[in-house]
Amino acid sequence: MLGAAALRDRLASGASRPAEVAEGLLEAIALKDGQLHAFSAVEPDLVRMQAAAAERRKGLGRPAGSLNGVPIALKDIIDTVDLPTANGTVLDAGRRPRRDATIVARLKAAGAVILGKTHTTELAYLSPGPTRNPHDTTRTPGGSSSGSAAAVAAGMAPAAIGTQTNGSIIRPASFCGVVGYKPSFGLIPRTGVLRCSRTLDTVGVFGRTVEDVALVADALIGFDGIDPDVAPMAGFDLLATALSDPPAKPDIGFVRTPFWDRADAATQQGFGDLVAFLGPRCVEVGLAESFGSSVDILRQIMTVEMAVSLDPYARRGEDTLSPALTAAIGEGRRTTAFDYLKALEARAALREAVHDAFHRFDVLLAPAAIGEAPVGDQTGDPVFATIWSLCGLPAVTLPLLEGENGLPVGVQLVGAWGSDARLLRTARWLGESVLKGAAG
Fold this sequence. Notes:
The chain is α/β, with parallel strands linked by helices and 440 residues long. The protein has helices at 4-13, 18-36, 44-59, 102-109, 146-153, 170-176, 210-218, 238-242, 265-278, 294-309, 311-317, 323-334, 337-355, 383-391, 420-439, and strands at 39-41, 71-75, 113-118, 159-164, 179-182, 202-207, 252-254, 282-284, 363-367, 395-402, 408-414. An eleven-stranded mixed sheet has the order 1-3-2-4-6-5-10-11-9-7-8, sandwiched between helices. Strand 10 (395-402) and strand 11 form a beta hairpin. Helix 10 (294-309) packs across helix 13. It is globular, with a radius of gyration of 20 Å.
């Protein structure tokens, strides 16, 4: 059950060997995944070969990357040469990409062991995949990065990669009780990742700790010259900053958002208790009334861009697509260019408006989901991630609260664009503060 950062340290010190770690996780997958269905593809011999290569690098004294021997699971919309990438649809069953996605190449260059591919929803939209929640198999693990979140929560992977267009990292992390990190838009290249919405799609990381997601994301961030929305920029060094102490106690703005009434009673009470625990440095801050339109704005942008991006699937086999996806594509096709461009203008205005909050606060605090994972064949409500996804802001959720049934409820922290390192530092501080308070 070690996370990626702790496992990296044990491997580097020689306390654990890559082959032992790989076998342990393969055994966990064999034991648990028949019930949870987090993985869509695992090739044990391929895992063993990668682990043996990591062991040889260390044994021969060759330069080893930051993730040497650390197994990482990948959402099955991320292209891999040596594993199938089916994108959650029968239309791509058995598909073998000709090249790795940029992030897969970077993970391999860092020495990571690609553990397998995790189930997603149909073409990363709403129709649920087969994955079940490790805390209660009658409940959803969320969507669309459900398999990645469940694999980490169940101890089958120390870290996993997912993506978020609306709430597909933050919500599954909350439901499954793990740390989920959605970086600032444009930090991690999406080259070789299924495109749903160019304006919104973001690659992120699941882990057991803030250190886990920082370590893995450090290996992924940076310009690749192909993704048009990733610009050349200096390194962020997320892990070093996340491990450092804040120079002063952070100022936190508690944001109910316009959707507070959707949160269940236990979640509202939990946040009331958390705000009281944080004391005078946590102050409630309101958002302008215009943020109430964020759901409609995001949906308009997303459906238009999905209609374009997923058009090849609709043309190849529209009768195989779910009614929800068919409806979303149809909605996008019917939206006028005028309305789409107005939605982009409205998004820009909201991004500018939310920026003002960060003149006063280091981070914003908000729910990650409306409550515990709901029962049944659904993915849950992403509404508490919508504003931040629309504005392209970095967000991290921590499993700090419980619902009325004792299941996890996430606490979401949001930072200004590009403040990812400081956001993760504050998240680690908050997590440790809450744990110390609980122990006291």
